[in-house]
Amino acid sequence: MILPETPYETAPFVRREHLLGELRELIARHARTDQKTVIDGLLLAAEDRTGEPSPARTGTVVALIAQGAKRVALGERTYDYGPGQYLVASIDLPITGHYIEASPQRPALGLGLVIRPAALAPMLLEGPAADRPSRPAAPAAALGVADADDDLLDAAARMLRLLDAGPADRAVLAPMIEREILWRLLNGPMGATMRQIALADSSLTRIGRAVQWITDHYAEPFRIEDLARTCAMSASAFHRAFHAVTAYSPIQFQKQIRLHQSRLLLLAGADDVATVGFRVGYDSASQFSREYRRHFGLPPGRDAERLRAAAAS
């Protein structure tokens, strides 16, 4: 004899499905092409096709999927996440990403919230003293995926409801709900990474400064020893920490930035292939073409033509 499920067994599942359903409805109604919303830092995405992996930058965000699924690759690491799961990106990194479940009948729907360290840092002082790190932790990977609990989904739904509210309600309530979301992330599976984002002198923060320097000066050569010194690390410790966070060595990371930037320049069509290669820091046009093809699958000129044709269609 099979006994029927009790309300205590079904209620959590019903609540979760209700929250995900509300998120899907709100995202589908408010998502725009540029992903922006009237709430600063809140992003919405709706995509009705899977497409091919394409280069992008993560930003420092938490991204939650309400419907469909997405795959993000950082170096050799791959992260898949689907309904009710979220990805945390602790520093801005070059990635490739695409939706692996999306269709016109059932589009992929997700939301993102920019993580502001200034909003996160004060929370570290408000939790129990026993929970505060007594010494800097080893750097965590810059990306991670976890399951959202119902309380986090509820906070996300309340944030999206504010898109239908008046400006006065948004101005007062959005920062309060943002704070709740950050608090729940701090106390969730990705808490260690969230704490490192907030700490001004964490290993992650120092590696983040190195990442920003390379990103801003991608065409310039650099010495590992000099960059390590700016992070108050030995060269060997810096190299290990950089790879742990980004999945790349510093030189490999610079190459990723150069190639992503060259693709943008080629798409703009302002220069020929050789000139673009020199602009992003390559001394050899043949080396640039070889590494570009290895990374993107086509020679620079042909890839640019394909991208322009796709943009025009």
User: Averaged pLDDT, please?
Assistant: 87
- Give the amount of beta strand, in percent: 15-25%
Q: Give the CATH class of the largest domain.
A: Mainly Beta
> How many distinct helices?
12
Low-confidence stretches: none
Write down the domain tally: 2
Could you tell me the number of beta strands? 9
CATH topology of the largest domain: Jelly Rolls
**Helix/strand order:** HEEEEEEEEHEHHHHHHHHHH
N- and C-termini, Cα separation: 60 Å
Morphology: globular
GO molecular function: DNA-binding transcription factor activity; sequence-specific DNA binding
Protein name: AraC-type DNA-binding protein
Pfam families: AraC_N (PF06719), HTH_18 (PF12833)
Domain HTH araC/xylS-type: 208-306
Overall description:
The chain has 313 residues and is an alpha+beta fold. It has 2 domains: 13-198, Sandwich (Jelly Rolls), CATH 2.60.120.10; 201-313, Homeodomain-like (Arc Repressor Mutant, subunit A), CATH 1.10.10. It is 50% helix and 17% strand. It contains 12 helices and 9 strands. The strands form 2 sheets. It has a 5-stranded antiparallel sheet with strand order 1-8-3-6-9. Helix 10 crosses helix 11. The protein starts with 6 loop residues before the first helix and ends with a helix. The model has no long low-confidence stretch (mean pLDDT 87).
